[in-house]
Amino acid sequence: xxxxxxxxxxxxxxxxxxxxxxxxxxxxxxxxxxxxxxxxxxxxxxxxxxxxxxxxxxxxxxxxxxxxxxxxxxxxxxxxxxxxxxxxxxxxxxxxxxxxxxxxxxxxxxxxxxxxxxxxxxxxxxxxxxxxxxxxxxxxxxxxxxxxxxxxxxxxxxxxxxxxxxxxxxxxxxxxxxxxxxxxxxxxxxxxxxxxxxxxxxxxxxxxxxxxxxxxxxxxxxxxxxxxxxxxxxxxxxxxxxxxxxxxxxxxxxxxxxxxxxxxxxxxxxxxxxxxxxxxxxxxxxxxxxxxxxxxxxxxxxxxxxxxxxxxxxxxxxxxxxxxxxxxxxxxxxxxxxxxxxxxxxxxxxxxxxxx
Length: 356
What we know:
This protein is α+β, with helices and mostly antiparallel strands and 356 residues long. Helices cover 34% and strands 22% of the residues.
């Protein structure tokens, strides 16, 4: 698997007329050669690949890294790259503009003045976005854990319990069912706090009739899940039901249209048109979704701000929302896998409004 990925990176180099790429993004390093540690640099050239990490990872790198020569010096990785001649003969090299620090880029330029260095964005994004069968399996497993936690949490949600308690339960239950960590801090937002799309769980106690936004996910073998459901604690009233129906219609409209080969903004627009037509356009301010994999938020964005073409086999979220200040919020999020004829919904949890 890693050999195929290294070869795919080399084809990118040829297309960009470069001789090497310095990969500093840890998720991209993991994708390319298998290393899961917290420090490392991967250099992929036309005819060689070198992975450099520090001495803490001697055994781990030897066990995990595939299809790249492993180097475990001290902590001065960039100094070692120069002294060991790992990029000798390179004329043009690429940095990942989104991930390399200014300090490290300056060191590499100083250590290798004969090389032309180019900062470029999204060098590997399209490659990483196209999930293979094993990656899809891991995302499914992570999503299954998240959905089990949601099913169980419905028996815990009730008036009088705090948002923080529910967030703790979501963390515990996902870990119990096999997650290695959370994909992000769970969002639990009830009543007026639901109008904040990224509200942190607070000590607020939930009350009868409130809408509760639950956004959470976990990580299984490096791959993330992500799901949002909004439930009601008792009858929420006609306004909340109408908003919920609008968000659900927008989401299902977008999912029905989602496929590889269309522009990101075009898919976002399908959901946004439904919300605009219902008169809530000003209350849907964020993007429709994002890619997911070794990062919780990865390329491609699913956004009105992006003209990116959505690739086949990309896993993306579809998560429209309406947020009415001082009242409530509603968001519904599923995770889908794009293909040329449509998409496969990897989320199975029910979406009709649940009134507890």
